[in-house]
Amino acid sequence: MTTEAPSLNDIKDAARRLTGLAVRTPLLDCPAADTVCGGRIFIKAEMLQRTGSFKFRGAYNRISRLTEDERGRGVVAFSSGNHAQAVAAVSGFFGIAATIVMPSDAPAMKIEATRNYGATVILYDRFTESREDIAAEIVSGQGATLVPPFDHPLIIAGQGTAGLEIAEDMAARGTAPDQVLVPCSGGGLIAGIATAVTAHYPDCRVHAVEPSGFDDMTRSLISGHRETADPEARSICDALLVPTPGELTFSINRNLLAGGLAVEDAAVRAAMAFAFRHLKLVAEPGGAIALAAALSGKIDCTDKTTVVVMSGGNVDTALFAEVLGQTSG
């Protein structure tokens, strides 16, 4: 595997590979958010992507390039749910056996969906066991190919196609983004988006948005080296609980990002309800966190054009009903 950061041309190559397969998700106007934030807000609705999140982009870009021999030996991935579903779905396209290592406390619908796509699911305790070690044992024993969730140039390039679409759609509107807010966990999505967006709009400021207590990318950008989340931290944002940035993703993000923001769970719940009521979008907690940053004033959007990436919509129905029932939007 090369550890070289993907270029804009790599992202364009991924976009060509994904044409006709990935959904070109819409960039939506949101007048209600404009009013709250005092600026122009655009929503990149990645919950409308295949498998319900942006992860399909990177998974397809990686798996579609496997050799016939590699396909025959299967793939392994570890994920809290969105990458799991994407790898399972893409593997199904090619008739590849997929084994996915998932935390036992992942949302039940994510586990069920991954199995329904045909993958074998192995559950682990995210607080006492290492998913990387479990996956490594499977790779060693079966000769399977690891498809990592973020720290791989082909994964990053695939996720970057969302940023390429943002840049193209903003240009079609005759405007430019002042800032882009992106949910962040391991950093693959924001690394790809930042690569594409800043290539088109060098003055645009791209910000990572993380759950409070899991703001390891934010703190890493400040310190200049990879920080680790508090092991006692907990958050509703199950998709964003990776404890430290990826090595490759951080090397990209430290050069391209303007900074990071940490958001409390209460603001995330409010953003989930807001998106449903005003945009008719179902967002999972991690998928709503960038919108939460804008709506709660974690970043100044006044008189600015802000693109908010909503990264996924795979939320358990019970949690979503609870959020809508308890939160005004």
If you had to describe this structure to a student in words, what would you say it looks like?
Strands 1-2-10-7-8-9 form a six-stranded mixed sheet, sandwiched between helices. It has a four-stranded parallel sheet with strand order 5-4-3-6, with helices on both faces. Strand 7, helix 9 (188-200) and strand 8 (205-211) form a beta-alpha-beta unit. It starts with 7 loop residues before the first helix and ends with a helix. It has 329 residues and is α/β, with parallel strands linked by helices. The radius of gyration is 18 Å and the shape is globular. The mean pLDDT is 96. It is 47% helix and 15% strand. Helix 5 (82-94) packs parallel to helix 6 and helix 9 runs parallel beside helix 11 (247-256). It has helices at residues 8-18, 31-37, 55-63, 68-72, 82-94, 108-116, 131-142, 153-172, 188-200, 216-223, 247-256, 265-279, 285-295, 317-326, and strands at 27-29, 40-45, 75-78, 98-103, 120-124, 145-146, 179-183, 205-211, 259-263, 305-310.
